[in-house]
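User: Here's a structure from my thesis project, written as structure tokens. My advisor, Dr. K., wants to see whether a designed sequence matches the one we expressed. Can you design one independently, without my sequence as a hint?
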């Protein structure tokens, strides 16, 4: 049985979502809300990415 030599890159979505949410939070002058939105979107994107593979 051959090993899969494929890296799991789904974990990059959470930090990327947090940084995007941080920027969005500064735009709407509510940084904590932006961070939570970004983190939620990052976890959602990670779950979708893991489900597709």
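Assistant: Designed independently from the structure alone:
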């Amino acid at each position: 049985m051959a090993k899969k030599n494929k890296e799991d890159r789904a974990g990059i979505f959470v930090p990327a979502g947090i940084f995007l949410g941080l920027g969005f939070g500064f735009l709407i002058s509510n940084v904590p809300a932006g961070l939570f939105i970004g983190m939620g979107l990052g976890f959602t994107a990670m779950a979708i990415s893991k489900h597709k593979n």
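When you compare it with your expressed construct, this may help: The chain has a mean pLDDT of 86.
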